[in-house]
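Mods, move this if it's the wrong board.
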Amino acid sequence: MQLNSDYYDTDFKLTYKGNEILIRNDGPEGESLFVNGELQDQNFSPHNGHLIGHIFNEENIKEVIEVIMGGRETRDCMIYADGSLIHTHVPPAELIEKPKKENEKKRTRSGLIFPFIVIILMAVMMLFMLPYLDGDQPSEEPADTVFQEENDPVEGKTDGQDTGTDVGEEIEVNYAWKYGKSSWTYTLTIPKSAYDQYKTVDRGKIKNYSYYVTDPTDDDTLAELAGKFKEAAEKEGFSDLDMVRNIIFFVQNLNYVDDKVGTGYDEYPKFPLETLADEGGDCEDSAILLASLLRELGYGTVLIQFPDHMAVGVKGKESMPGSYYEVDGIRYYYVETTSVGWSIGEVPEQMKNQAAKILILN
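Not the wrong board. Structure tokens:
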């Protein structure tokens, strides 16, 4: 494959662990990442600045390659292998300018915070003083009523014995994963009552895996988590594609646990809330979770079901590289969810010749 420089820029090459990494910047036409002459990732608009691919090192272990573009020339970038920086060249002027702008923003924000706090405190004091302005003391009865309502859930306890789970009990889960040049963390709080309720659902009565995605019971939890990814994308200046990739990396970083080990059953599909609470599951569990999160944000998704495996299909344009399944003229690009490093459109070798059933998520 011959790759030539053009008027806009020159190619940048780097050899790492026996692999030739080539980055090409075509300006308004986008950017491309090649490893050993094979196209790994491609952007189709200027200033996207983020490419993902993979290599196999000397021990034939797969490593994720991430490229963060950083300047006018292609070499002005940062390259990571499994989160470790292997190349950096950012123009000094840019390194100085960015903190300067951030400091200006901080000064602006700090100048506004103090007056805002004063206004809030004055409003709280006014609300507190209103009942006393007419000279009357507030009645004690409303306080007794509120206290009684708060204690209603534990009514029925005797001799210090707990009759069940408190209504307000929650499951707190801490997640950590890497995407781009950052390490990400998030703490999610899940109502234990909702988690316990899912454990009572008879899986034998559910005939289609799409039901686990479309069931509305855990929509609030999924909307909260999806909203955090959207907020993070806006804060970091991510494109839609970057946001989707961040969600994919989040799901890929969850633990892979076989049904027999995790639940005691040979086949036990989980609802998304269960997978989040358990911090993992098997292939259909992670696929159901990813499809649910992307669907919550309005992206077209399907489940790709094999005889002994499951993946996700994400709706994409014809210009996207990679493998896809076409349904009613729409391309759904393959996404593997069971381990880190698989890009959109990249299919594991053992799945390439297997027949697949596409589950529409209506």
